[in-house]
Amino acid sequence: MAAALRCAVRRLGLGGRALQRPAVSQRVEDNPSGQIASLLAGRSRSISSAAAHSPNGNPKHPCASNQKQTEYLVSTHLKQIQKKKEELFNLIAELDSKLPSHCNRDNRELLMDLSAHVQPKPNDPQWRWYGGAKRCKNYVIYGGMLFLGYLSVSDEISALYAVLME
After folding, report:
1. Contact 103/47 with Cβ under 8 angstroms?
2. For residue 142, what are the domain limits?
3. 105 and 34 in one domain?
4. pTM above 0.90, yes or no
5. Both 78 and 40 in a single domain?
6. How far is it, in rounded angstroms, from Cα 92 to Cα 103?
């Protein structure tokens, strides 16, 4: 919320002075036009300084200037995440193939989950095995839930059927 407010203040070109009260040496009744002129002059200075920072002289949204940096940061982070997933899959798969007694259930479940997130490796038997195990596990879980749901309402359905047949 605070960041959005700061961004809106920067867009208006008020700098940090927008939320502060201006220092007034005279009362408004004494010199109202002087006070308004000084406030307008302060605002026009901040707008002109914002315009001076943009390459073509037009004031532009300061938060939008970081868009390219943000896109670059996101793309590099996503590439690193994908690389780490691949490395983790290969590391756990190697442990499972060489020392299966040391690869516990949590690591095997993680291997099943990672098999769906890494690049397809149709020639790798472990990738095929864990990918198939993940699909089979999902079928069993969802099928079991559907079956239990059917069992929970089957008595009601039987009662309705018996009433309709009478």
Report:
1. no
2. 68-165
3. no
4. no
5. no
6. 8
